[in-house]
Specification:
Blueprint (H helix, E strand, L loop, with lengths): L1 H33 L5 H20 L4 E6 L15 H5 L3 E3 L13 H33 L1 E2 L3 H13 L7 E5 L6 E3 L5 E5 H4 L4 H17 L1 H4 L1 H9 L4 H25 L4 H11 L8 E3 L5 H10 L8 H16 L2 E5 L24 H15 L46 E6 L5 E6 L4 E6 H10 L6 E6 L2 E5 L2 H10 L1 H43 L2 H6 L2 H59 L3 E3 L1
Parallel strand pairs: 1-8, 2-9, 4-6, 9-11
Antiparallel strand pairs: 3-4, 5-6, 5-7, 10-11, 10-12, 12-13, 13-14
Length: 605
C-alpha cells in the first residue's frame, strides 16, 4: 500500500515540482549572475525560496491552475435528448470505468520508481544519521571552557546581538575551525589548539560570525534546504540550491562582521585563510569553508563595497516568494462556445384562395414556379383580380418527442444494485461480491452468473477466481472490507448520476427553446412569402416582437449552453476521479482477497 501511495500521489508531485523548480532556480541564478551588487543576505533568501518551493510543491495537494494551454471550441447541440431526473436518481446500477481486471499489473514502472526513490531517500537519511552521531560523539569528547574572560566576552557579544543568552562554549581538539552545533540547544565549539594562538581581534571576529548565525536563525532555516536535498536527491537543482544557500549564508555573516569594523576586511580575509577548509558538521555550521572553491568565492565577496538598494531587494524577494513558491498546474483555457443559429424549417407554400378559373391557373402557376426556383413571365397587375385575403399562418409543426438515451446494460440475471465492470473476455483474476445492499463485479459476464449460482439465498457472497482456481468467501468482515474499499467509487457514481439528471433537464430546456425558435422561423418565412400587398397589411410591430423574442431566446440558449459546458467539465472531473478510485479500490480488494486465501477463509469450488 505504501508503494502504491508513493507511485500514485507522490511521484507525480515530485515530477511537477521538479519542473517548476527548474524555472524558479533559473530566475534566481540569473539574478545572482547578472546583478553583482545583490547583497549576500538577499542571495541567501532567494536560494532558500528555491528549496522552500520544492517542499511546498510536494506537500500542496491542489496546485493553482494556469489556463494557458489552447482550448477547443465546443459546439453546443440545439436539441438534446431529455433524460428524466427521477430515472437518473433511481438508477440501481453504477457502472465503474471500463478497466480489465488485470489492467494494473502487480509490478510496473511507477512501482519500480517508487522503490528507487525510497532507496535513494534511505541512503540520504543514513548519511545524515551517521553525521549526527559523529557530531554527538564530538560533543561528548569536548571539554567545557573555563576561561572566564572568554565567557564574559561571549556573553557581552550575545547581548549586543540581541540574543537571550550566549550558547554553551566548549573546546575540542578534533576541530580546526569554530563550529556552531545543534538548533535546539546550540553549542559553540572552539578549536582548543587555536584558541591560545588567536589574537583578540581574530577571536572576536570568529565569535561574532557564529553569533550572527544565531541571530539570523540559520540553524533552523537551514533545515529547509537540507530536507529538500533529501527528498529531491535525484534533482541536481536541489543540491545546487543547498550549496548556493550555504555559501550565501556564510557570506551574509561575513558581511555582518565587516559592518562592525569596515577597516578589518584584510584581517578577516587572513583569518578565513588560517581557518582554511574543513568539513561542515551535519547538524551545525562551521566558520571554515567546505572546499577551496567556496573559500575563494567568500574572499572575492569581501571585496564588494557597493550594495543593491535594500528596498528594491526586499520587494524583489517578496515578489519571487509570492509568485515562484506557489505550485502551479497548466490547464486548458476556457473553451469558447460556438453558437449557431438554427436553420429555419422548410417554408410551406401558402394555400391560395380560388377566384376565377383563369386567375386561379395563372396565380398557381406563378407561385409554383417561384417555389421551385424556375423563372416565369411577370403578370400584368391590371389583369389580376383583387388581392386575396392574407393566408392564415400554418400551425407550427410540433417538435418531435425527444428520444431517451438507451439505458445502460443491466447485469445478465437478477435485479442487482452495485458497481459492475463487466467484460466479454476473461482476465487472469476476477471477483464478484453479491450483497443486497451493494454488489460489486470485476469479471466477465458469464462469471457473474457463476457467482449468482453459488449464492445461498440472500446471504452475502464473495466469488473470486485466481487463474483457473475458483473460491468462495462467506466471511462477513472480508465482504464489508471490500465494500468499504469501493465506497468512494459508489459515491462518485451517484454524483455522476445527479449531474446526468441536471444535464438532462438543461437538455430539455434547450429542446423547448429550439422548438420555439423553429416556430418563429416558420412564421417569419410565411410572412416573407406573402406578396407585396399582403406584407403591407401586416403590422410591423408583430415582426419586431418576434425579433425581440428570437434575440431573447438566443441569449437564453447561450446561457444554457454555458451551464451545460460547466456540467460537462464536472462530469469529466468526476470520471477521472472515479477511474483513479476504481483502480485503487481494485488493488485494495485484491489484497483483502489474498489475505482471505492465506488465512483459510475461502472455499474451493
Amino acid at each position: 500500500m505504501a508503494l502504491e501511495l508513493i507511485s500514485d500521489i507522490l511521484l507525480p508531485r515530485l515530477l511537477a515540482t521538479s519542473v517548476q523548480s527548474t524555472i524558479l532556480a533559473a530566475v534566481v541564478w540569473a539574478l545572482c549572475r547578472f546583478v553583482p551588487r545583490l547583497s549576500a543576505a538577499t542571495r541567501c533568501w532567494l536560494w532558500w525560496l528555491v528549496a522552500l518551493q520544492l517542499l511546498v510543491g510536494l506537500a500542496w495537494s491542489s496546485p493553482m491552475a494556469l489556463p494557458v494551454l489552447p482550448a477547443e471550441a465546443v459546439q453546443p447541440a440545439v436539441q438534446i435528448a431529455q433524460v428524466a431526473p427521477a430515472a437518473a436518481r433511481d438508477a440501481s446500477i453504477v457502472f465503474a470505468p471500463a478497466a480489465a481486471p488485470d489492467a494494473s499489473p502487480t509490478w510496473s514502472w511507477p512501482l519500480a520508481l517508487a522503490v528507487a526513490w525510497l532507496l535513494g531517500l534511505s541512503v540520504m537519511v543514513t548519511r545524515s544519521l551517521r553525521g549526527c552521531l559523529a557530531t554527538r560523539s564530538l560533543l561528548r569528547a569536548s571539554a567545557p571552557c573555563r576561561d572566564r574572560s572568554l565567557l564574559h566576552a561571549l556573553a557581552l557579544a550575545a547581548e549586543a546581538h540581541g540574543l537571550r543568552g550566549p550558547p554553551r562554549l566548549r573546546l575540542s581538539d578534533a576541530i580546526d575551525s569554530p563550529q556552531l552545533v545543534g538548533p535546539w540547544r546550540p553549542v559553540l565549539l572552539l578549536p582548543a589548539h587555536h584558541t591560545d594562538s588567536m589574537q583578540p581581534d581574530e577571536l572576536d571576529m570568529a565569535l561574532t560570525h557564529e553569533l550572527v548565525h544565531l541571530q539570523r536563525r540559520d540553524l533552523w532555516l537551514g533545515l529547509v534546504p537540507a530536507l529538500a536535498q533529501h527528498l529531491f536527491f535525484f534533482h541536481p537543482l536541489a543540491h545546487l540550491a543547498a550549496r548556493e544557500y550555504g555559501l550565501s549564508r556564510e557570506a551574509a555573516c561575513d558581511a555582518a562582521v565587516l559592518e562592525g569594523n569596515r577597516h578589518c576586511a584584510r584581517e578577516y580575509g587572513q583569518l578565513l585563510l588560517r581557518l582554511g577548509v574543513a568539513p561542515r558538521p551535519c547538524a551545525g555550521l562551521a566558520s571554515a569553508s567546505p572546499d577551496f572553491t567556496l573559500l575563494k568565492r567568500r574572499l572575492t565577496m569581501l571585496q564588494t563595497t557597493s550594495s543593491f538598494p535594500r528596498v528594491v531587494a526586499v520587494l524583489m524577494t517578496v515578489a519571487i516568494g509570492v509568485v515562484g513558491v506557489m505550485p502551479y498546474r497548466l490547464t486548458a483555457a476556457t473553451p469558447s462556445v460556438a453558437t449557431e443559429t438554427p436553420a429555419p424549417a422548410a417554408r410551406p407554400a401558402p394555400a391560395p384562395k380560388p377566384a376565377t378559373a383563369t386567375s386561379r391557373t395563372s396565380t398557381t402557376t406563378a407561385r409554383t414556379a417561384t417555389r421551385n426556383g424556375v423563372p416565369v413571365d411577370p403578370v400584368d397587375p391590371a389583369d389580376m383580380p383583387d388581392p386575396p385575403a392574407p393566408p392564415a399562418p400554418p400551425a407550427p409543426v410540433a417538435p418531435a418527442a425527444p428520444v431517451a438515451p438507451p439505458a445502460p446494460p443491466a447485469p445478465p440475471t437478477g435485479a442487482l444494485r452495485g458497481t459492475f465492470t463487466l467484460g466479454t473476455q476473461r482476465g487472469e483474476n476476477a471477483f464478484v461480491l453479491l450483497d443486497d445492499d451493494h454488489s460489486i463485479a470485476v469479471s466477465a459476464t458469464d462469471e457473474l452468473r457463476e457467482a449468482q449460482a453459488a449464492r445461498r439465498g440472500d446471504a452475502p457472497l464473495l466469488w473470486m477466481r485466481r487463474g483457473d482456481a475458483r473460491y468462495v468467501v462467506r466471511d462477513r468482515a472480508t465482504i464489508e472490507a471490500i465494500r468499504d474499499a469501493y465506497a468512494e467509487v459508489t459515491a462518485l457514481g451517484e454524483a455522476q448520476g445527479e449531474l446526468g439528471a441536471l444535464q438532462g433537464n438543461l437538455g430539455g430546456q434547450q429542446g423547448k427553446l429550439g422548438a420555439r425558435q423553429a416556430e418563429i422561423a416558420v412564421q417569419a418565412a410565411t410572412r416573407a412569402l406573402a406578396d407585396v400587398n399582403v406584407r403591407a397589411q401586416v403590422d410591423a410591430s408583430v415582426s419586431a416582437a418576434l425579433q425581440r423574442e428570437q434575440a431573447g431566446m438566443q441569449a437564453e440558449m447561450q446561457r444554457l449552453a454555458t451551464q451545460q459546458l460547466g456540467l460537462a467539465r464536472e462530469q469529466t472531473a468526476l470520471a477521472t476521479r472515479q477511474q483513479t478510485a476504481s483502480a485503487r479500490a481494485e488493488r485494495e480488494a485484491r489484497a483483502l482477497m489474498d489475505a482471505a486465501i492465506r488465512n483459510g477463509l475461502t472455499e474451493r469450488l
